[in-house]
Design brief:
Blueprint (H helix, E strand, L loop, with lengths): L1 H11 L2 H10 L32 H4 L6 E8 L6 E7 L5 E5 L5 H12 L9 E4 L8 H8 L2 E4 L9 H10 L14 H12 L11 H12 L1
Parallel strand pairs: 1-4, 4-5
Antiparallel strand pairs: 1-2, 2-3
Helix pairs in contact: 4-5
Length: 218
Amino acid sequence: MATTIYQSLFVQGRGALWRELLRCLRTGRAQRRPRSRSGKERRGRIPDMVMLSERPAEAADRAVPGHWGGDLIIGARHGSAIGTLVERTSRYLLLLHLPMGTAEAVNAAMAHAIGRLPAQLVRSVTWDQGTEMNRHLDFTVDTGVQIYFCDPHSPWQRPSNKNTNGLLRQFFPKGADLSVYSRADLDEAERKLNGRPRKSLAWRKPSERLTELIALTG
C-alpha cells in the first residue's frame, strides 16, 4: 500500500507541488528504490526508473497530446550527440543542442526546450535506458514532467521518435562529428522537418498539427 501511494504521488506531482511532496514524504525520496529478491539494490541500472508499462494509456493511443519520445543520435566514435524529442500526437520535433553529453547537460537542454511550450503539451517523456538519463529524477523535480523508460533494446517502443531520428540523418549523417553543428543548424533542421507534410497526419505538417493542439487545449 505504501509503495502504491509513493508511486501515485511521484507520477501525479507537478512543479512546486511536487517539491512540497518530496519534503513531506517520510523518507524524503521520490520513489521506493527497486530491490532484488535478496533485498539488495540492483546494480548496473538507472536508479528509480518508472517503466513504460506504467505510462498512462492515453499516451499509447495518441488521444491526448503532450507525451514525448526522447533519444540521442550519436556522432562519430560516440564522441558527440544531438538530443531529439518528438511529440506523439503531432510528430512535432524539438532538437537538443548538446556540446556536452552529460546527464546534467541533457536535463538542462530538455528543460529549456519544453519550457517554450504550453504546460498542457508537456505531460511525459519516454526515453531508453541510456546513461544520459541518470539524473532523470532531478529533471522531474525541476519541471514536474515524468520520465518513463523503455525496455532494454526496444526502440520500437518509441516509434515516432525512432522514425524521426531516421529522417534527421539527411541533415546529420551517420559517422559525422555532430559537435560541428550549431544551434542555428539544429533550428534549420527542426524547421524543415516540422514543415514537411506527413502521411500519418493526413498530409498535414507537424507544425500545423501542433498549432491545432494548442488551440484545442488552450
